Amino acid sequence: xxxxxxxxxxxxxxxxTGYAWKNIYKLYNSIARSLIENNYSVCLSFAExxxxxxxxxxxxxxSVLVFNPLRITLRSLITLRKAILxxxxxxxxxxDMGTWHWLYILLRFWGVxxxxxxxxxxVSNPNPSIPxxxxxxxxxxVLNRIPAIRADHLYVISDFVASRxxxxxxxxxxxxxxxxxxIDTKAYSCSDTKPKRNKVIIFCAARAAYYKGIATLxxxxxxxxxxxxxxxxxxxxxxxxxxxSRFKALSRQLNVSDxxxxxxxxxxxxxxxxxxxxxxxPSEWGEGFASTVAEGMAAGKAVVxxxxxxxxxxxxxxxxxxxxxxxxxxxxADTLYHLIRNEDLRIKLGNNAEKRAKNYFDENLYHQRVIDxxxxxxxxxxx
Length: 383
Description:
The protein is α/β, with parallel strands linked by helices. The chain has 13 helices and 13 strands. The chain has 2 domains: 6-182 and 363-379, Glycogen Phosphorylase B (Rossmann fold), CATH 3.40.50; 185-360, Rossmann fold, CATH 3.40.50. The strands form 2 sheets. A 7-stranded parallel β-sheet has the order 3-2-1-4-5-6-7, with helices on both faces. The chain is elongated. The two termini are 17 Å apart.
């Protein structure tokens, strides 16, 4: 029935990893359905597995196994080898694996004819990558041109990630395809009716870690309330993580506890995004894509974000939002001050941002782009 063989969708995380991975789970479901319609069979593998798998539609026939490509053991290789033989696995679609790996040689020896990696990795450096040089460049270039050891094709979520793959990993640019991440834009279709209030609500959702720029936002709050003497705004922050207690201590130290509200971890940010007037993404990290920016845009909100990583690609130009330098609390405060005092500008930016989000980042478009590229790449391997 499935003459084209089996495609293994291989994850390096569990099937119950948190909020950030739901985007990938939904993509897996769309990929699996489309592959089966195109005469492929589908296997899923996870680093850890707990049944049932609830994000795959019940009418989609799949096989599941436990395999962690980041912690390979002899036992896991035996499990993988048995699955390849039993399911006739001929293609592997990895998430966030390297451009080259010794496992790829083994997979090809076992009969896999195509290896594709979807790279979503963010990095600590928020600036564009600098090309590799010297012996390191030569070594990486040679490895990434040996068919047996390198991935056949890479999908990346932004030009920022693509440049890192090409410049630092020395992977051939001709084998890199950019596909922007998608979000459920309908989930952020906010009602036109807003509650009456006398304060502008600023919302930020991010992991409670310093590299996400939360301390910078706290300092900007202090500048707004104490230096600029604004009292018609309120900041809401949603998130949990290793630096949460230090952020709360900083809020107390700067005397902004009444203005800077901690909401804790939220299962969904939809309501708070819709209720807000301004969305802030103050990241100081090399974000691959930053879905929080796209979500704020889809909700029709004025978004203030940093130039870190791939964020500028998501936000677009100054017609769709405001970009600032990472870690600059004064620039953040000045930008927020201008938006707090200018409702017309907030509305204009929000309307433009909403159109951009729906045109570029809708998850249905995202799923179709991945599926189209995947089927094209798999088809080119068939003899």
